[in-house]
Amino acid sequence: MKPEQNALLERWQAAWLPALETWSKYTRLHDARLCTSHLEAAKEGLNGSFAMIRLNDQSVIINLKSVLELGLEDYAVEILAHEIGHHVLAPGSVTEQFRLLARIRRGLPTLEAHAPMVANLYSDLIINDRLQRQSGLRLADIYRRLTKAGGTAEGQVWNLYLRIYENLWKLEPGNLGARKGDDRSEADAWLGARLIRVYANDWLAGAGRFAALLLHYLVEDAKQQGDSVIRRLLDMTDAASGCEPYGGLDIEADEIDGAIHPAEDRVLSGLADLPGEEGDSLSAARANEAQPSRGQAREPFEYGEILRAAGIRLSDHEIAVRYYRERALPYLVPFPTRHVPDSPEPQLEGLEPWETGDPLDEVDWLQSVMQSPQIIPGLTTVRRQYGQEAGRTIARQPVDLDLYVDSSGSMPNPQQQISYLSLAGAIIALSALRAGSSVQVTLWSGKNEFMHTAGFIRNDHEILHVLTGFYGGATCFPIHRLRETFGDKTKRKRPAHILMISDDGITTMFDHDEQGNSGWDVAARSLAAAGAGGSMALNIPTDWDTGNERWGQEIWKQLKRARQEQGWEIFAISRLEDLLDFARAFSRRHYA
To answer: Which residue among 166, 200, 207, 257 has the highest number of C-beta atoms inside a 10 angstrom radius?
Structure first.
């Protein structure tokens, strides 16, 4: 390392503690990773910008080579404090990053691809305004240097962004290099500055409004998104890379209501302060917007878009696995309580000599006198000898689960939109795992279209991977799966319950298999070998057992025969959404 590089590295290392203390003397993060070359920075995942954060390991990464090229080497405390601000303020955590991106996307209809950039710019405004005003750091100087490095060919987004800073810090137009725009852009710059101040302590609530403010300028600037200066500022576009996604599933009320242009915000416009108007204070307006979630959840494809915008690179299938795990969690049975043995009971086992030196209160005088009227300590004295009887516990044997889920063309693709069959299967399978059971899952559609786990397993990821697969073909139940699972050569250590989740296509399980065996015989032998019964949750009319002619006499006869002759429990689910109630009730009945 060259002497000048070593000197710069030492200066930036010394600036770390002062940067932490700009937020609080109690702020604790491990030291920043200071890279002295582009290659070293690239190995850390830093490309394009001169700084970045990682939420996975709470890291700050700086490319000192780029810092030198931009002439920012004297702003170590400012840049480090800014990056620390992403960890302690905005976004602060992976979950908050997902929530931020969800609100930004709501404010960018048709331009959702720009959400990571807009979220980054918004977070920077929240952090920099606080550092400039409250900590007295020289953030304005950094933007002057960045503007000088970027030249004059920057787009309208960048110009509006600088004008917002000039309004926030009461600088003359052009002080940071921005051009004074027309009346609309000047009004928007003022609204943007007011938004940052008003929502400084509730920055998530202002995110959708900021996105709506930038929407017009993004449209006008569409051909200039290769903007070099903005690229150098993007320090959190991949912040969630390597993180386990959690928390971006629910659609919150203020996410929907908050995607409005700041000019329409009663708080920002001042209309909320007019006497006699509803919501005449900021707190009242915020309370109205920050209502609890309405119970809505995103579709899997939208959930995946948010994860990718946060920097999480997963396939659609892997995203679906995480989606259904998170959606299933509120419905799972409670964790089973540990059965503690009863306290051991002392049991009299006999007598033994009491010798001199033993505790005096242990002498059994009655038995000693009965043995010899003449008491001679150590010779005729005795004491009682006790043993302990171990406490007893009630042994509970968990029942394994053999689950079959329909994935034919009549079912939705769980990787694109919510599949209540997959979700119900996830709830029941994860509840079984909690109770200590093993689970085998088979996903099936047409002939030779099936996938399954490697037998009865306890790996939740593999189970969900099968449940979230999709075929979308014809309907043909894989009878051989039942035959092989519960065949004569298969010895089971404990009973299993067979559960089918399908619609009227389940009756194909009673056809003949590829060996000519009757499906009825295979099903009967399987139920007997499983030893814990079988259930069918079917998307069929609730009055199916009345012989509804509109539905089909043949299907009605087959299901009724399955119930009467073989003992299948049949649950008619008229709406797929009702599978959630079935899954919760089934889980509590068998595994709670």
So the answer is: 207
Strand, coil or helix: 389:
strand
The rounded distance, in Å, linking the Cα atoms of 452 and 426 is: 14
Inter-residue contact 404 to 500 (CB < 8 Å):
yes
For 407-427, the pLDDT digits (tens) are 999 899 999 999 999 999 999
**Contact residues for 110 (Cβ-Cβ < 8 A; gap 6+):** none
3-state percent breakdown (helix, strand, coil) of the chain, nearest 5: 50, 15, 40
**Of how many residues is the chain composed?**
592
| DSSP characters over 22-66 | TT-TT---PPPEEESSHHHHHHTT--SSSEEEETTTTEEEEEHHH
Rg (CA), the chain: 34
**What CA dihedral angle connects 94, 98, 104 and 105, to 10 degrees?**
150
At 131 the pLDDT is 97
Phi, psi of 402 (to 5 degrees): -110, 105
Q: What is the mean pLDDT of residues 241-266?
A: 90
Strand pairing report for 531-538 and 496-502 = parallel
Q: Tell me the C-alpha to C-alpha distance, in Å, between residue 447 and each of 73, 402, 419, 487.
A: 66, 20, 22, 21
Does this model's pTM top 0.85? My answer is no
Q: Determine the pLDDT at residue 16.
A: 97
Contact 123, 90 (CB under 8 A): yes
Segment 265-313, tens digit of pLDDT = 988 877 665 444 444 445 444 444 444 444 589 999 999 999 999 999 9
Per the CB < 8 A criterion, the answer to whether 185 and 173 are in contact is no
- The first and second tokens of residue 154, run together, are 């920057």
pLDDT at 440: 97
User: Rounded mean pLDDT of 328-333?
Assistant: 92
CB atoms within 10 A of CB 578: 17
DSSP conformation letters of 444-477: E-STT-EEE-SSSB--HHHHHHHHT----B----
3-state secondary structure 179-244: CCCCHHHHHHHHHHHHHHHHCCCCHHHHHHHHHHHHHHHHHHCHHHCCCHHHHHHCCCCCCCCCCC
Token pair 């089971």 in the structure block, residue:
492
Going 565 to 570 to 572 to 576, the CA torsion angle's sign is negative
18/15 Cα distance (integer angstroms): 6
Query: Using CA atoms, how far apart are residues 461 and 453, in angstroms rounded to an integer?
Result: 10
Residue 503, SS3 per DSSP: coil
Domains in the chain with CATH codes: 3-233 (no CATH), 350-386 (no CATH), 400-591 (3.40.50.410)
pLDDT of 82 reads 98
Three-state DSSP state, 159: helix
Alpha-carbon distances, residue 189 vs 104, 124, 161, 400 (angstroms): 18, 16, 8, 63
* Residue with more model confidence, 163 or 394: 163
